[in-house]
Specification:
The complex is a heterodimer of chains A (491) and B (494). Chain A has 21 helices and 2 strands. By secondary structure, chain A is mainly alpha-helical. In chain A, strands 1-2 form a two-stranded antiparallel ribbon. In chain A, a hairpin with a 4-residue loop joins strand 1 and strand 2. The longest helix of chain A has 32 residues. The relative contact order of chain A is 0.10. Chain B is mainly alpha-helical and 494 residues long. Chain B has 2 domains: 272 residues, no CATH class; 222 residues, no CATH class. Helix content of chain B is 74%, strand content 3%. Chain B has 21 helices and 2 strands. In chain B, strand 1 and strand 2 form a beta hairpin. Chain B is globular and about 75 Å long. The chains are: A mainly alpha (491), B mainly alpha (494).
């Protein structure tokens, strides 16, 4: 049995690596409590894990740890994506820590190792979530992911907004966890098992009303985590208050993890009940796309605007999940969407964290005239905005195109049409950002805020990589699609 | 003589030009940009003898994506027009635009690049990509260098066209997916789609709604009544060169899309909707003319006259006759020349007086004799006086309509009466500006054409008469192409 465990651990190394790295940092805190050393250790560790999991790719799905988890293409792909997101978040955070203009940053600097530890453990949650094939391990993964993020949101502990964000997220998170757990309990009650394959067997013979109730609660739980309308009310405030690199992290990694888990569940044991949950799910996605885009029109703060934009993107991701049917469907649109969306979000939040000044709320109006003062930076900002709006020839268009194509292919004509209408509405607020940056003759606050003296090389690296993906991803999909197809073993 | 690589040069050159211009600094910008535009015009001229060129390449094999370029008479003359108008408008902008010069010129080259790529695409997905990408440079051109209400105008322009094109996207994807379902392989190449849909026509129901999704997008771009409301705003606020390209090239993309994609792919649906579409065209013609008549702003007048003229073009298209299509195509080119010239002429006055109010001018024939002559010639061309280019185009549309099997020739009769209205507002404009008494002493200070203006207007005026007296050089290749397209349309419709 011990041998078996060792073997499993080796297989799951990229996932266990998160926790290992986290524990290493905790130990470092005891012996050598210096932020710089923790930082270097975590960056090296993450890079090592990323390279390890790209090189050692397990192509045969293997159940591990007594059948609670599985290592297959999906698990490895989503875990790898999470690793990259975490690395980029750390790299975005570094220059902020050296910003001498902000008291908030300075006061938090000593706690930087804690930031890294929370980040790594919440990443571990993602790994568990992506590989779980049992409702218990699923729940553990979801909680680990969330708890880490609660702490990250409140990282600027001297700042009221950050604390508010953490507390709101904690309360809503606890609430949604309860609902999720309720769903799990019902499903367990109906099927007598927590393992996906056993539940599937019982569901194949019919879905009882109790199980249907469980499914509904499960859907609601996922909708909370993905910030689907009408479970989205916390999103704007939480995104606004959290440290900006953390906002980028939250906007991406939670979606990656939840989508990975949902993929396994929706097209696993919920497949027999497809006709039951399909209308609910479609409605949630479409309402999110529409409401997200309409609400974003009204936002003053740029981070809140992006929060609503991420809600609408979540809706598209949900539609991607819908078309990822293993029988006759295609996983590629979903994987491409989450990858490119993550790149664009990380890029835009990195830019905002570079510009922002925590003493004020960063309003959209502050961007006025930025194009005249910092042309190159504004150009890249514009690139991300056009990408998020889904305007060709940038990568943001291709991912929408693939989702729509898959929808039409599976005869979801009306759904595709409504999603498109949402995108049309969305164009208005994205264009407003461009308009303020380039067409205004006045100069807003963002152009005047003093920037850190730090040359922010690590942040520049993140922005450069994500900008390249956004720019070239539409024209040369091979840049990332090869990787996705390979990782998901679709080729 | 020329091989497929010529197509690559045609497509890539403007993109490279954009980059070169964007990174040029200082006084060199204008000249570098104008020379690049001139070189491109020469490159485009080289293709005159080419009848047909095809280039395909794999874009991304695992997903079955490929791309292709296709050059024929339909795309060629519009590319030539675009290269010509871009050259002229950039030359005109020298000395007019001073702010952010590099960005200005780079955006015009980028616009040229997307337009040419869109015209040459033999692939629905790529067509769509460039069709939308075209909006971005124009959005910035109007928004940064435009008039006082530029932001309102540019947002309206972008959102109108963007909304239309996204609806087209669904229709486009449906066309593409149904091909896959029928054949088991992915291809978005226009030629394979066309071949497939001729052999296996879609049910009339399906054709109809896909056609509608295409029509909405193209109708907004053209613009067809009642989708025209963005046009006057965009024209009035755009800088002169922007108006020239907008009217001369971008509007043509809508009619080009109709002739290239919408009607050949879905002829049954086009015939089904011929009646309402002809009605909208005729309303556009009459309404555009009437509204133009009452304008006091010269640019607005020309903008509404565009609505009226393009109504004629769409009428020619929806009547579905070969002769009508030749006329419609010719009229697209004519409109590019005459309206482009009119906008430049307005710009000439505006740059000196900073007003576009008709009543501010009067008796210019004495002060600016050369200007007045050119204005009169261009106005005649716009009214379609015999001997000018406009006459040939409108005549062909009218003649063609009598053979139409899908719509009554009565539409054209109604439209032709509206042509009289066209004469009224155009001559009204010329009369107010050039004749009568000069009320404003400021007009005495105006200077007439100098070398720079002659460089711009001699080719334009020459084209008016060249096409007017000898249209065959243009109509010949176009006629062949139309014949080829019509051979694919079911007998009972053409």
């Amino acid at each position: 049995m011990f041998e078996q465990l060792m073997q499993d651990s080796l297989l799951a190394l990229p996932i266990l690596g998160w926790a290992g790295l986290g524990i290493l940092l905790v130990c470092l805190q005891i012996f050598c409590p210096r932020p710089k050393i923790s930082l270097i250790a975590s960056v090296i560790g993450l890079v090592a894990l990323i390279s390890y999991s790209t090189v050692n790719f397990v192509s045969v799905p293997t159940a591990i740890f007594f059948g609670t988890a599985v290592i297959d293409a999906n698990a490895q792909f989503f875990n790898l994506l999470g690793l990259i997101i975490a690395l980029f978040t750390v790299l975005t955070m570094i220059p902020g820590m050296n910003n001498e203009h902000s008291k908030v940053f300075r006061l938090s600097y000593e706690q930087f190792p804690e930031f890294l530890i929370c980040l790594l453990f919440s990443g571990f949650g993602l790994g568990v979530l992506a590989s779980a094939i049992d409702l218990t391990s699923l729940f553990l993964g979801l909680e680990t992911l969330s708890i880490g993020i609660y702490c990250l949101c409140g990282f600027y502990r001297t700042e009221i907004r950050s604390t508010e964000s953490a507390f709101k997220y904690l309360m809503i998170g606890a609430f949604s966890t309860a609902i999720f757990l309720y769903g799990i309990a019902f499903i367990y009650g109906a099927s007598g098992a927590t393992h996906y394959s056993v539940i599937l067997e019982t569901f194949k013979t019919g879905v009882s009303p109790l199980a249907s109730l469980g499914i509904l609660f499960l859907l609601a739980g996922f909708a909370f985590k993905l910030a689907f309308v009408p479970f989205h009310l916390y999103t704007a405030d939480v995104y606004e208050g959290a440290p900006t690199p953390v906002t980028g992290f939250m906007a991406t990694i939670v979606k990656v993890g939840v989508i990975a888990a949902a993929l396994r569940i929706f097209w696993g044991f919920l497949q027999p009940a497809f006709h039951f949950w399909e209308p609910f799910w479609v409605a949630l996605c479409l309402v999110s796309i529409l409401v997200g885009n309409i609400a974003a029109l009204q936002q003053r703060s740029i981070k809140k605007l992006l929060a609503f934009s991420s809600i609408s993107h979540g809706g598209f991701l949900g539609l991607g999940l819908l078309v990822a049917n293993p029988e006759g469907g295609n996983l590629f649109p979903l994987a491409a969407y989450i990858t490119i969306y993550s790149a664009m979000s990380l890029g835009v939040f990195a830019l905002i964290s570079h510009l922002e000044n925590r003493e004020h709320i960063f309003s959209v109006e502050d961007l006025r005239g930025l194009g005249n003062k910092k042309f190159f930076l504004s150009l890249i900002f514009a690139l991300f905005v056009l990408g998020l709006a889904g305007i060709p020839p940038f990568a943001g268009f291709m991912i929408k195109f693939w989702i729509l194509q898959a929808l039409v292919q599976q005869n979801y004509m009306t759904v595709a049409l409504i999603a498109v209408v949402g995108s049309i509405i969305g164009a208005a607020y994205y264009l407003r950002i461009l308009m303020l940056m380039f067409m205004s003759t006045e100069e807003g606050a963002a152009a005047q805020w003093p920037l850190s003296k730090d040359r922010a090389l690590s942040l520049r690296f993140v922005v450069a990589v994500t900008a390249l993906i956004t720019l070239l991803g539409g024209i040369r999909p091979s840049l990332y699609a090869d990787w996705i197809l390979h990782a998901l073993a679709l080729k | 003589m020329l091989n497929e690589n010529y197509l690559l040069v045609l497509v890539l050159f403007p993109f490279i030009a954009t980059l070169i211009v964007a990174f040029t600094r200082g006084n060199a910008v204008s000249w570098v940009s104008i020379s690049l535009a001139a070189i491109y015009f020469v490159i485009a001229l080289l293709g005159f003898s080419v009848k047909e060129l095809h280039y395909t390449a794999v874009w991304y094999a695992p997903l079955g994506l490929s791309y292709g370029f296709y050059l024929d008479a339909y795309s060629y003359f519009l590319i030539l027009l675009s290269a010509f108008l871009t050259l002229i408008s950039l030359y005109y902008s020298r000395g007019v635009i001073h702010e952010k010069l590099a960005a200005y010129h780079a955006l015009f080259h980028a616009l040229q690049a997307t337009v040419v790529a869109c015209l040459l695409c033999d692939d629905l997905v790529f067509f769509y990509v460039f069709w939308e990408a075209m909006l971005i440079p124009m959005y910035f051109i109007i928004g940064i260098w435009g008039g006082p209400r530029r932001i309102y105008a540019t947002m309206k322009f972008f959102l109108f066209t963007f909304a239309g094109s996204l609806l087209m996207l669904i229709g486009l994807i449906a066309t593409y997916v149904m091909y896959y379902k029928g054949t088991g392989q992915w291809s978005s190449s226009f030629h394979s789609l066309l071949e497939y849909y001729q052999a296996h026509p879609l049910s009339v129901e399906t054709q109809r709604w896909i056609f509608l999704s295409f029509i909405i997008s193209f109708a907004i771009k053209v613009p067809l009544f009642p989708f025209h409301t963005w046009l006057p705003d965009a024209h009035v606020e755009a800088p002169t060169a922007g108006s020239v390209i907008l009217a001369g090239v971008l509007l043509k993309m809508g009619t080009y899309g109709l002739m290239r994609f919408a009607v050949p792919l879905f002829p049954e649906a086009a015939a089904h909707y011929a009646m309402p579409l002809c009605l909208l065209s005729v309303i556009g013609i009459i309404l555009g003319a009437l509204v133009a008549w009452r304008q006091t702003d010269i640019k607005k007048l020309i903008a509404y006259s565009s609505v009226s003229h393009l109504g004629f073009v769409t009428l020619g298209i929806f009547m579905m006759t070969e002769i009508g299509w030749n006329g419609a195509y010719l009229q697209m080119i004519n409109h590019g020349i005459s309206t482009g010239a009119l906008f430049l002429l307005v710009g000439f006055l505006y740059d000196q007086r900073h007003t576009r109010d008709i009543s501010a001018y009067g008796g210019l024939a004495k002060i600016l004799p050369a200007y007045s002559v050119v204005l009169a010639i261009i106005a005649f061309s716009s009214v379609a006086l015999p001997g000018t280019n406009g006459f040939i185009g409108e005549l062909l549309i009218v003649i063609g309509s009598f053979q139409s099997k899908v719509a009554s020739w009565g539409w054209v009769v109604a439209a032709s009466t509206a042509a009289v209205l066209g004469a009224i507002y155009m001559l009204h404009l010329v009369q107010k500006i050039c004749y009568g008494k000069n009320q404003d002493p400021q007009n005495e200070q105006l200077y007439d054409f100098r070398f720079r203006e002659w460089v711009i207007y001699i080719p334009l005026v020459a084209l008016v008469f060249i096409i007017g007296f000898y249209p065959e050089w243009l109509l010949g290749p176009v006629r062949e192409k139309t014949m080829q397209i019509f051979s694919t349309i079911p007998q009972h419709l053409r």
